[in-house]
Amino acid sequence: MTKLSRWVGILEVVNPFFIDDTPIFMQSNDPFIVRFEVNPLVWLSPDQAIPINHDICWKRLSFTKELPKKSLAWTGMVRGSLRRLDDEDGQYLEHILVNQLEKAHDYGLSDSDQKKLRTSIVNTVDRQVIVSVPDDDPHIAEPSKRVRLEQNESTKIQAMLAQIGERMNLKIWLPQNDKQRVLALWNPQDEACILERLPLNYDEVTLRTIENIDVLWIRQRSIIRAFEIEHTTSIYSGILRMADLMALQPNLSIKAHIVAPLKRRSKVFQKITRPIFALLEKGPLSESCTYLSYDTVRELFQDVNLEYLKDSVLEKYAEYAEEADA
Questions:
Q1: Which of 21, 23, 140, 290 satisfies CB 3.0 to 4.6 Å to 318 for a cystine?
Q2: Could you state, in order of their start, the residue ranges of all structural domains in the chain?
Q3: What would you report as the CA-atom Rg of the chain, rounded to the nearest whole angstrom?
Q4: Predicted structure pTM score
Protein backbone atom coordinates (compact mmCIF):
# COMPACT_ATOMS: atom_id res chain seq x y z
CA MET A 1 0.00 0.00 0.00
CA THR A 2 1.73 3.15 -1.20
CA LYS A 3 2.04 6.26 1.00
CA LEU A 4 1.68 4.14 4.16
CA SER A 5 4.28 1.52 3.11
CA ARG A 6 2.20 -1.36 4.44
CA TRP A 7 1.49 -4.90 3.27
CA VAL A 8 -2.25 -4.96 2.73
CA GLY A 9 -3.20 -8.20 1.01
CA ILE A 10 -2.65 -11.28 -1.13
CA LEU A 11 -4.20 -11.59 -4.58
CA GLU A 12 -4.37 -14.92 -6.40
CA VAL A 13 -4.12 -14.62 -10.20
CA VAL A 14 -6.82 -16.90 -11.65
CA ASN A 15 -6.48 -16.29 -15.42
CA PRO A 16 -3.76 -15.41 -17.96
CA PHE A 17 -3.21 -11.72 -18.53
CA PHE A 18 -5.34 -9.80 -21.03
CA ILE A 19 -5.31 -6.35 -22.65
CA ASP A 20 -8.13 -3.95 -21.83
CA ASP A 21 -8.05 -0.14 -22.06
CA THR A 22 -11.45 0.44 -20.42
CA PRO A 23 -10.80 3.21 -17.85
CA ILE A 24 -10.58 1.88 -14.28
CA PHE A 25 -7.74 3.66 -12.50
CA MET A 26 -8.06 6.90 -14.49
CA GLN A 27 -11.22 8.48 -15.92
CA SER A 28 -9.66 8.52 -19.39
CA ASN A 29 -6.47 7.33 -21.14
CA ASP A 30 -5.88 4.74 -18.43
CA PRO A 31 -2.25 3.57 -18.92
CA PHE A 32 -2.73 0.31 -16.98
CA ILE A 33 -4.04 -1.91 -19.74
CA VAL A 34 -2.26 -5.22 -18.98
CA ARG A 35 -4.66 -6.82 -16.53
CA PHE A 36 -5.32 -10.01 -14.60
CA GLU A 37 -8.41 -11.51 -13.02
CA VAL A 38 -7.65 -12.06 -9.34
CA ASN A 39 -9.16 -13.57 -6.24
CA PRO A 40 -8.43 -11.69 -2.97
CA LEU A 41 -7.18 -14.23 -0.44
CA VAL A 42 -6.33 -11.53 2.12
CA TRP A 43 -7.41 -7.88 2.06
CA LEU A 44 -6.76 -5.84 5.20
CA SER A 45 -7.99 -2.42 6.26
CA PRO A 46 -5.30 0.31 6.40
CA ASP A 47 -5.09 0.21 10.21
CA GLN A 48 -4.54 -3.55 10.18
CA ALA A 49 -2.17 -3.61 7.19
CA ILE A 50 1.37 -4.54 8.29
CA PRO A 51 3.92 -1.66 8.23
CA ILE A 52 7.14 -2.62 6.48
CA ASN A 53 9.19 -0.85 9.17
CA HIS A 54 7.70 -3.01 11.92
CA ASP A 55 10.15 -5.60 13.25
CA ILE A 56 7.92 -8.44 12.03
CA CYS A 57 8.83 -7.35 8.48
CA TRP A 58 11.99 -5.28 8.71
CA LYS A 59 14.14 -7.85 10.48
CA ARG A 60 13.05 -10.77 8.27
CA LEU A 61 12.90 -9.58 4.65
CA SER A 62 16.06 -9.92 2.58
CA PHE A 63 15.81 -6.37 1.18
CA THR A 64 15.29 -4.60 4.53
CA LYS A 65 17.04 -6.55 7.32
CA GLU A 66 20.50 -5.12 6.58
CA LEU A 67 19.24 -1.52 6.33
CA PRO A 68 18.81 1.11 9.05
CA LYS A 69 15.13 1.69 9.89
CA LYS A 70 14.83 5.10 8.20
CA SER A 71 16.44 3.98 4.95
CA LEU A 72 14.38 4.10 1.76
CA ALA A 73 16.70 1.83 -0.20
CA TRP A 74 14.12 -0.97 -0.04
CA THR A 75 11.55 0.92 -2.14
CA GLY A 76 13.05 -0.08 -5.47
CA MET A 77 12.17 -3.70 -4.72
CA VAL A 78 8.43 -3.04 -4.43
CA ARG A 79 7.86 -0.09 -6.75
CA GLY A 80 9.21 -1.58 -9.94
CA SER A 81 6.60 -2.93 -12.37
CA LEU A 82 5.98 -6.64 -11.72
CA ARG A 83 9.17 -6.97 -9.68
CA ARG A 84 9.68 -10.56 -8.52
CA LEU A 85 10.34 -11.11 -4.81
CA ASP A 86 12.60 -13.88 -3.58
CA ASP A 87 10.58 -17.03 -2.89
CA GLU A 88 11.54 -16.94 0.79
CA ASP A 89 10.38 -13.33 1.14
CA GLY A 90 7.12 -14.06 -0.66
CA GLN A 91 6.36 -17.10 1.44
CA TYR A 92 7.09 -15.23 4.65
CA LEU A 93 4.87 -12.29 3.67
CA GLU A 94 2.08 -14.69 2.77
CA HIS A 95 2.47 -16.36 6.18
CA ILE A 96 2.23 -13.14 8.24
CA LEU A 97 -0.62 -11.73 6.15
CA VAL A 98 -2.71 -14.91 6.55
CA ASN A 99 -1.99 -14.84 10.30
CA GLN A 100 -3.03 -11.19 10.43
CA LEU A 101 -6.32 -12.05 8.71
CA GLU A 102 -7.03 -14.84 11.19
CA LYS A 103 -5.90 -12.99 14.32
CA ALA A 104 -5.83 -9.30 13.55
CA HIS A 105 -3.41 -6.94 15.28
CA ASP A 106 -4.25 -3.24 15.13
CA TYR A 107 -1.25 -1.19 13.94
CA GLY A 108 -3.20 2.06 14.10
CA LEU A 109 -2.90 5.17 11.94
CA SER A 110 -1.06 8.28 13.08
CA ASP A 111 -2.25 11.79 12.18
CA SER A 112 0.43 11.80 9.49
CA ASP A 113 -0.90 8.51 8.09
CA GLN A 114 -4.43 9.91 8.01
CA LYS A 115 -3.26 12.91 6.01
CA LYS A 116 -1.45 10.69 3.51
CA LEU A 117 -4.70 8.84 2.86
CA ARG A 118 -6.47 12.05 1.83
CA THR A 119 -4.87 12.31 -1.60
CA SER A 120 -7.25 12.50 -4.54
CA ILE A 121 -7.16 12.61 -8.33
CA VAL A 122 -8.02 15.86 -10.08
CA ASN A 123 -8.69 16.28 -13.79
CA THR A 124 -6.70 18.97 -15.59
CA VAL A 125 -7.06 20.01 -19.23
CA ASP A 126 -4.85 17.24 -20.60
CA ARG A 127 -4.25 14.74 -17.77
CA GLN A 128 -5.03 13.65 -14.25
CA VAL A 129 -2.84 14.48 -11.27
CA ILE A 130 -2.73 13.33 -7.67
CA VAL A 131 -3.17 16.09 -5.13
CA SER A 132 -3.67 16.37 -1.39
CA VAL A 133 -5.42 18.95 0.72
CA PRO A 134 -3.81 18.92 4.15
CA ASP A 135 -5.54 20.05 7.29
CA ASP A 136 -4.02 22.83 9.29
CA ASP A 137 -1.49 21.38 11.70
CA PRO A 138 -2.65 21.64 15.33
CA HIS A 139 -0.45 23.48 17.82
CA ILE A 140 1.35 20.78 19.74
CA ALA A 141 2.87 23.07 22.33
CA GLU A 142 0.97 25.63 24.38
CA PRO A 143 0.97 28.84 22.32
CA SER A 144 2.92 31.77 23.68
CA LYS A 145 1.06 34.79 25.06
CA ARG A 146 1.92 36.76 21.91
CA VAL A 147 0.58 34.01 19.63
CA ARG A 148 -2.63 33.74 21.68
CA LEU A 149 -3.16 37.49 21.40
CA GLU A 150 -2.71 37.36 17.61
CA GLN A 151 -5.09 34.43 17.34
CA ASN A 152 -7.69 36.29 19.42
CA GLU A 153 -7.32 39.36 17.18
CA SER A 154 -7.69 37.30 14.01
CA THR A 155 -10.83 35.65 15.42
CA LYS A 156 -12.30 39.11 16.07
CA ILE A 157 -11.63 40.04 12.43
CA GLN A 158 -13.16 36.74 11.31
CA ALA A 159 -16.29 37.50 13.37
CA MET A 160 -16.47 41.03 11.95
CA LEU A 161 -16.29 39.75 8.36
CA ALA A 162 -19.06 37.26 9.13
CA GLN A 163 -21.26 39.97 10.62
CA ILE A 164 -20.60 42.38 7.74
CA GLY A 165 -21.72 39.66 5.32
CA GLU A 166 -24.83 38.96 7.38
CA ARG A 167 -25.76 42.66 7.41
CA MET A 168 -25.45 42.63 3.60
CA ASN A 169 -28.05 39.81 3.58
CA LEU A 170 -25.55 37.16 2.52
CA LYS A 171 -25.12 33.60 3.73
CA ILE A 172 -21.96 32.88 5.73
CA TRP A 173 -19.67 29.86 5.78
CA LEU A 174 -17.15 29.29 8.57
CA PRO A 175 -14.79 26.30 8.91
CA GLN A 176 -16.09 23.79 11.43
CA ASN A 177 -12.98 24.16 13.60
CA ASP A 178 -13.48 27.94 13.88
CA LYS A 179 -17.24 28.19 14.27
CA GLN A 180 -17.43 27.96 18.06
CA ARG A 181 -14.75 30.63 18.59
CA VAL A 182 -16.34 33.00 16.09
CA LEU A 183 -19.87 32.58 17.46
CA ALA A 184 -18.57 33.48 20.91
CA LEU A 185 -17.96 36.97 19.44
CA TRP A 186 -20.79 37.21 16.90
CA ASN A 187 -24.48 36.70 17.63
CA PRO A 188 -26.21 36.48 14.24
CA GLN A 189 -29.63 38.09 14.00
CA ASP A 190 -30.77 35.09 11.99
CA GLU A 191 -28.96 31.81 12.64
CA ALA A 192 -30.16 30.57 9.25
CA CYS A 193 -27.52 32.83 7.67
CA ILE A 194 -24.83 30.37 8.84
CA LEU A 195 -24.55 27.48 6.44
CA GLU A 196 -24.09 23.97 7.81
CA ARG A 197 -23.10 22.66 4.39
CA LEU A 198 -21.97 24.33 1.20
CA PRO A 199 -24.62 24.41 -1.57
CA LEU A 200 -21.96 23.66 -4.17
CA ASN A 201 -21.46 20.91 -6.70
CA TYR A 202 -17.69 20.47 -6.92
CA ASP A 203 -15.36 17.51 -6.64
CA GLU A 204 -14.28 16.39 -3.17
CA VAL A 205 -10.83 18.01 -3.37
CA THR A 206 -12.26 21.42 -4.29
CA LEU A 207 -14.88 21.21 -1.55
CA ARG A 208 -12.30 20.34 1.11
CA THR A 209 -10.24 23.34 0.01
CA ILE A 210 -13.24 25.69 0.07
CA GLU A 211 -14.48 24.40 3.43
CA ASN A 212 -11.21 25.43 5.10
CA ILE A 213 -11.30 29.06 3.95
CA ASP A 214 -11.73 31.38 6.94
CA VAL A 215 -14.90 33.21 5.80
CA LEU A 216 -17.08 32.83 2.72
CA TRP A 217 -19.86 35.16 1.62
CA ILE A 218 -22.47 33.28 -0.40
CA ARG A 219 -25.44 34.51 -2.44
CA GLN A 220 -27.91 31.80 -3.44
CA ARG A 221 -25.62 28.97 -4.64
CA SER A 222 -22.57 31.05 -5.51
CA ILE A 223 -19.54 32.11 -3.50
CA ILE A 224 -19.03 35.81 -4.12
CA ARG A 225 -16.22 36.59 -1.63
CA ALA A 226 -13.57 34.47 0.08
CA PHE A 227 -11.44 35.74 2.96
CA GLU A 228 -8.25 34.27 4.42
CA ILE A 229 -7.06 35.95 7.62
CA GLU A 230 -3.28 35.85 7.86
CA HIS A 231 -1.93 36.54 11.31
CA THR A 232 0.97 34.08 11.32
CA THR A 233 4.56 35.11 10.75
CA SER A 234 4.89 33.23 7.46
CA ILE A 235 1.81 34.83 5.76
CA TYR A 236 1.55 31.69 3.68
CA SER A 237 -1.18 29.19 4.56
CA GLY A 238 -4.05 31.38 3.38
CA ILE A 239 -2.29 32.33 0.17
CA LEU A 240 -1.63 28.67 -0.56
CA ARG A 241 -5.29 27.86 0.03
CA MET A 242 -6.41 30.58 -2.38
CA ALA A 243 -3.88 29.37 -4.95
CA ASP A 244 -5.16 25.79 -4.51
CA LEU A 245 -8.69 26.99 -5.15
CA MET A 246 -7.73 28.93 -8.29
CA ALA A 247 -5.73 25.98 -9.61
CA LEU A 248 -8.54 23.48 -8.98
CA GLN A 249 -11.27 25.68 -10.43
CA PRO A 250 -9.73 28.11 -12.98
CA ASN A 251 -13.18 29.08 -14.27
CA LEU A 252 -14.53 29.90 -10.82
CA SER A 253 -15.32 33.61 -10.44
CA ILE A 254 -14.64 34.40 -6.78
CA LYS A 255 -13.31 37.62 -5.33
CA ALA A 256 -10.52 36.47 -3.00
CA HIS A 257 -8.97 38.54 -0.22
CA ILE A 258 -6.01 38.08 2.11
CA VAL A 259 -6.74 39.97 5.34
CA ALA A 260 -3.78 40.95 7.52
CA PRO A 261 -2.51 43.75 9.78
CA LEU A 262 -0.92 46.77 8.10
CA LYS A 263 2.51 45.81 9.40
CA ARG A 264 2.30 42.66 7.28
CA ARG A 265 0.99 44.31 4.13
CA SER A 266 4.34 44.22 2.31
CA LYS A 267 4.87 40.59 3.23
CA VAL A 268 1.48 39.65 1.76
CA PHE A 269 2.40 41.29 -1.55
CA GLN A 270 5.85 39.72 -1.45
CA LYS A 271 4.38 36.24 -1.08
CA ILE A 272 1.44 36.66 -3.44
CA THR A 273 3.73 37.67 -6.31
CA ARG A 274 6.09 34.71 -6.01
CA PRO A 275 6.72 32.93 -9.35
CA ILE A 276 4.86 29.77 -8.33
CA PHE A 277 1.65 31.80 -7.97
CA ALA A 278 2.18 33.58 -11.28
CA LEU A 279 1.82 30.42 -13.37
CA LEU A 280 -1.77 29.43 -12.57
CA GLU A 281 -3.97 28.54 -15.54
CA LYS A 282 -6.35 31.36 -14.67
CA GLY A 283 -3.47 33.85 -14.53
CA PRO A 284 -1.31 35.25 -11.74
CA LEU A 285 -2.84 34.97 -8.28
CA SER A 286 -1.96 38.62 -7.71
CA GLU A 287 -4.60 39.56 -10.32
CA SER A 288 -7.46 37.72 -8.62
CA CYS A 289 -6.54 37.95 -4.94
CA THR A 290 -6.30 41.29 -3.12
CA TYR A 291 -5.16 42.56 0.26
CA LEU A 292 -7.44 43.97 2.96
CA SER A 293 -6.07 45.42 6.19
CA TYR A 294 -7.50 44.76 9.64
CA ASP A 295 -8.16 48.51 9.88
CA THR A 296 -10.24 48.39 6.70
CA VAL A 297 -12.40 45.60 8.11
CA ARG A 298 -12.91 47.56 11.34
CA GLU A 299 -13.86 50.69 9.38
CA LEU A 300 -16.36 48.83 7.23
CA PHE A 301 -17.78 47.11 10.31
CA GLN A 302 -18.63 50.52 11.78
CA ASP A 303 -20.59 51.64 8.70
CA VAL A 304 -24.22 52.15 9.77
CA ASN A 305 -25.43 51.76 6.18
CA LEU A 306 -24.13 48.22 5.57
CA GLU A 307 -27.68 46.87 5.08
CA TYR A 308 -27.98 49.09 2.00
CA LEU A 309 -24.55 48.35 0.52
CA LYS A 310 -23.47 45.64 -1.90
CA ASP A 311 -20.40 43.47 -1.49
CA SER A 312 -18.76 45.48 -4.29
CA VAL A 313 -18.03 48.17 -1.69
CA LEU A 314 -14.93 46.12 -0.87
CA GLU A 315 -13.39 47.20 -4.17
CA LYS A 316 -13.01 50.62 -2.60
CA TYR A 317 -10.70 49.15 0.04
CA ALA A 318 -9.00 46.18 -1.63
CA GLU A 319 -5.38 46.62 -2.78
CA TYR A 320 -3.78 44.76 -5.69
CA ALA A 321 -0.10 43.90 -5.68
CA GLU A 322 0.45 45.90 -8.89
CA GLU A 323 -1.07 48.98 -7.31
CA ALA A 324 1.09 48.56 -4.24
CA ASP A 325 4.22 48.58 -6.41
CA ALA A 326 3.11 51.62 -8.38
A1: 290
A2: 6-117, 145-325
A3: 25
A4: 0.58
